[in-house]
């Protein structure tokens, strides 16, 4: 059976993944760029990706016993993302496609988060709460487009968590450590009240914002609140805001499935909140395995598979990256 290869390189992660033509997933081999200090510099991340890509590809095919001639097509993230990082993925994809004589498929990274979630969980027509490093969007399908019906007006929620973590000396990615600290606080303070540590709740209509809560959280630590308590409050406030917009999206669209995607969807607390909210309104919450919440090549392969089934390929001359590609740029012709 043929394999669709997927290459992810929108930001911090370079990853090869795959999916068999029958929809069976092949786990990704990924490398995460962790800056020694400060945030992610696009050029440094791109250097990291190009340095590791050769060995990562070898690891992916040998670990999963994939003969190179079994690869039917090469899908890659065409956007949105950091230009220098996207360019590495696109170049690797073009050269593999040329060498193997197999077609290229440029895919929309945000849509790939939806399609891997649908494949893995079996949900049909969800509202997607896409919570990742650079993106925070609430998305729903309307005809042949995935429409963005709410999104952050400033930074992504993961970016906010990572930046807060960085101010406290916690290296990238900060989200998992914040979750750990918040859990510790909750365990040792079972009757903790948010009234004691209120943070801004950034919702405007269907849109969200996170830069205010970031500044306020840093201030709370300076004011003497413990880091664990601030992490707990930060999660409670920022996740509730996302879940509130997601609930409104379910109400407006009349859909009854909520799908979580993006790296922040690895967090058990946001999963709990999603489940509770959905149960309250007779809906169902879904999320893929953690390896498929964070950026990964497998999700790129899965979207590539769906596009190829409908004969959508990308010609070499059309394979330029698009750092500001939008979720609703992609025409969705598959079920
Ligand atoms: P992505 O951009 O989709 O690959 O996701 C990366 C983002 O997910 C980073 O901002 C991480 O800090 C965040 N992240 C990963 N795991 C967790 C977690 N358990 N809780 C909160 N954020 C997380
Ligand atoms: Mg992503």
Bound molecules: adenosine monophosphate, magnesium ion
Distance between the termini: 22 Å
Low-confidence stretches: none
Q: State the helical fraction.
A: 40-55%
CATH class category of the largest domain:
Alpha Beta
Task: Give the overall form.
Answer: globular
Number of domains: 2
Radius of gyration (Å): 20 Å
| Largest sheet composition | 5 strands, mixed
Oligomer status:
single chain
Instruction: Write down how many β-strands occur, each being a DSSP E stretch of 2 or more residues.
Output: 12
Per DSSP, the total helix count is: 9
State mean pLDDT (0 to 100 scale).
Answer: 96
Kindly identify the CATH topology of the largest domain.
Nucleotidyltransferase, domain 5
Strand content bin:
15-25%
Q: What class, by secondary structure content? A: alpha/beta
Sketch the topology as an H/E string, one letter per element. Answer: EEEHEHEHEEEHHEEHHEHEH
CATH architecture of the largest domain: 2-Layer Sandwich
What do we call the CATH homologous superfamily of the largest domain? Answer: ATPase, nucleotide binding domain
Strand order of the largest sheet: 3-2-1-4-5
Short description:
By secondary structure, the protein is of the alpha/beta class. Helices cover 43% and strands 20% of the residues.
Task: Please give a structural write-up.
Helix 1 packs parallel to helix 2. 43% of the residues lie in helices and 20% in strands. With 335 residues, the protein is an alpha/beta fold. Strand 4, helix 2 and strand 5 form a beta-alpha-beta unit. Strands 3-2-1-4-5 form a 5-stranded mixed sheet, sandwiched between helices. The chain is built from 9 helices and 12 strands. The chain has 2 domains: 150 residues, ATPase, nucleotide binding domain (Nucleotidyltransferase, domain 5); 168 residues, Nucleotidyltransferase, domain 5, CATH 3.30.420. The mean pLDDT is 96. 51% of the residues are buried. The longest helix has 27 residues. The two termini are 22 Å apart. Bound molecules: adenosine monophosphate (AMP) and magnesium ion. The site of adenosine monophosphate has 18 residues, from helix 4 and helix 5.
């Amino acid at each position: 059976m043929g394999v669709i290869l997927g290459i992810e390189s929108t930001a911090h992660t370079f990853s090869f993944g795959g999916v068999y033509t029958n929809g069976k997933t092949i786990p990704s081999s990924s490398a995460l760029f962790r800056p020694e200090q400060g945030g992610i510099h696009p050029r440094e991340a791109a250097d990291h990706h190009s340095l590791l890509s050769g060995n990562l590809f070898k690891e992916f095919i040998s670990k999963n016993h994939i003969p190179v001639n079994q690869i039917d097509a090469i899908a890659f993230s065409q956007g949105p993302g950091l230009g220098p990082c996207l360019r590495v993925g696109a170049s690797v994809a073009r050269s593999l496609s040329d060498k193997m004589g197999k077609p290229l498929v440029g895919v929309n990274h945000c849509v790939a988060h939806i399609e891997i979630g649908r494949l893995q969980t079996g949900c049909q027509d969800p509202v997607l709460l896409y919570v990742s490093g650079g993106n925070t969007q609430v998305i729903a399908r309307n005809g042949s487009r995935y429409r963005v019906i709410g999104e952050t007006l400033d930074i992504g929620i993961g970016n906010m968590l990572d930046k807060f973590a960085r101010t406290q000396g916690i290296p990238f990615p900060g989200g998992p450590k914040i979750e750990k600290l918040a859990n510790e606080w909750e365990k040792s303070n079972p009757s903790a009240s948010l009234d004691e540590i209120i943070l801004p709740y950034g919702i405007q209509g269907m849109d969200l914002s996170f830069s205010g809560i970031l500044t306020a959280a840093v201030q709370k630590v300076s004011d003497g609140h413990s880091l664990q308590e601030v992490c707990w409050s930060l999660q409670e406030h920022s996740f509730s805001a996302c879940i509130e917009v997601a609930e409104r999206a379910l109400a407006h669209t009349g859909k009854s499935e909520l799908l979580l995607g993006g790296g922040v969807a690895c967090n058990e607390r946001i999963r709990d909140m999603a489940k509770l909210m959905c149960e309250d309104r007779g809906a169902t919450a879904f999320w893929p395995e953690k390896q498929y919440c964070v950026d990964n090549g497998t999700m790129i392969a899965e979207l590539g598979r769906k596009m190829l089934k409908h004969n959508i390929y990308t010609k070499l001359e059309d394979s330029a990256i698009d750092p500001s590609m939008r979720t609703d740029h992609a025409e969705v012709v598959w079920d």
